[in-house]
Design goal:
426 residues; alpha+beta; Cytochrome p450; four-stranded mixed beta sheet; three-stranded antiparallel beta sheet; 50% helix; globular
Length: 426
């Protein structure tokens, strides 16, 4: 329980400092512990450091580049094809299925049958897991949601996780037994599940924590990417209504689309707030004093619209907006410091002029480069590539069927976003 009233931080500098104070630990996902307990995002101190160092080896820019250049295109094409053939669809479903197929690969969840029915079944599981993770924002009965999530976690474990574990353990045993001498390390699956299985004893990971960690990667990547994709399309079409020349630019220029994604993320962070609790008595730079257990609410939306950073028109969406060189163009939307999103560059992309938001002095941030120590090439990001594919297919909002906001969440998420496909709109 909090000792004092919550401390609300609303300016850019206040939130920036709080993200980097090691005396403040993650607190937002306590309510969603059914999915989030002991996951990377929830850990603190040495346990977080050890797991982050391990998983950082997988989340290198060269691996991101492989996923973006070699995997994402086929994933998007396979997902879009039936909707384009039908001439219509829902942007929420398209975004979730595309991002889910990619994050399943990253998390290490195999789809043995590879059918549309199997994909739909996993999609429904991921949606429920996301509801559990973001329980703090739900207006439904929380105990009812937890019961539903526990049931889904059991089915996820039986139908997807255990077969995926069995396959990887068999591969590892074959390598250790010398039965696959021609199989080099790079040929083994490069995913979160394999990474954790190889260090399971050292990290002391019980089965339920392993299950939640893999489920966390699957749902968090799908949920945040799908929402960023939907919001980017929504903001882009609002923008080109006033600036029609930028529609053709968006179709042809991934760098411009990446800027649209960054500006969208600034306006629509995956979580509008971050929560931290003080682990000891501390004083913030503003002079505010905190006692152990005090709750600190980092208002990311307010910080992302701080006119001292973004100008007097900070509330306006503008993909041509400049930001100070030391400020990520997506604002605080990927967090910062110890808990900066490990997949931010995969989702949002990066060029050499952008600050990733990671603390260079943080020992867990040391693997944010290629394996030979050289900076990796720029990334356009999953969301920008998804949006460009949508535009190339003639995708646009359905003018006769407006989008609807999710009534079960206090967050600004769409529950449906009808779109049509065909000859590119002018």
């Amino acid at each position: 329980m909090s000792v004092g009233a919550p401390t609300n931080l609303t300016t850019w500098d206040e939130v920036h400092e709080a993200f980097r104070r090691r005396e403040l630990r993650q607190a937002l996902y306590d309510e969603g512990a059914v999915v989030m307990a002991d996951c990377l995002l929830d850990l603190h101190g040495p346990d977080h450091r050890d797991r982050r160092r391990l998983e950082n080896r997988l989340f290198r820019r060269e691996v991101f580049a492989h996923w973006e250049h070699e995997v994402l295109g086929a994933t998007i094409s396979d997902t879009l094809t039936p909707f384009v053939a039908e001439g219509s669809g829902d942007l929420i479903v398209i975004g979730y299925r595309t991002s889910m197929n990619l994050t399943a690969l990253i998390a290490g969840i195999d789809r043995v049958r590879g059918t549309a029915e199997e994909t739909e079944h996993l999609y429904q599981i991921v949606k429920k897991l996301s509801e559990g993770a973001t329980l703090v924002h739900s207006v439904r009965d929380h105990d009812e949601v937890r019961a539903e999530v526990l049931d889904v976690l059991g089915r996820f474990d039986e139908e997807f996780l255990q077969p995926s574990i069995a396959r990887r353990m068999a591969l590892l045993e074959a390598v250790r037994a010398g039965e696959a001498q021609d199989r080099v390390e790079d040929e083994l699956p490069r995913d979160v599940l394999m990474t954790l299985l190889r260090s399971r004893d050292r990290l002391h990971l019980p089965a339920e924590v392993l299950r939640r960690e893999v489920a966390f990667y699957l749902q968090a990547g799908s949920h945040s990417t799908a929402n960023a994709f939907t919001h980017t399309v929504d903001e882009l079409f609002s923008w080109v209504g006033e600036h029609p020349e930028d529609l053709d630019r968006a179709r042809a220029d991934l760098r411009f689309l990446r800027a649209c994604v960054h500006e969208t993320l600034r306006h629509h962070p995956a979580s509008p707030v971050a929560w931290r609790r003080a682990t000891e008595e501390i004083e913030l730079g503003s002079g505010r004093r905190l006692a152990p257990g005090d709750l600190v609410i980092l208002d990311i939306v307010s910080a992302n619209h701080d006119p001292g950073i973004w100008g007097d028109d900070a509330e306006r969406f503008d993909p041509h907006r400049d930001a100070p060189p030391s400020v990520p163009r997506w604002g605080h939307s990927f967090g910062g410091g110890l808990h900066a999103c490990i997949g931010q560059e995969l989702d949002g992309g990066l060029d050499s002029g952008l600050d990733s938001g990671l603390d260079p002095g943080d020992p867990v941030a040391g693997d944010r480069e290629t394996s030979d120590g050289a900076p990796a090439g720029e990334l356009y990001g999953t969301v920008a590539v998804m949006v460009q594919a949508f535009l190339a297919a003639g995708g646009r909002p359905d003018p006769s069927n407006p989008p609807q906001l999710d009534p079960n969440s206090t967050r600004r998420h769409f529950s449906s976003y009808p779109v049509t496909f065909g000859r590119a709109a002018r």
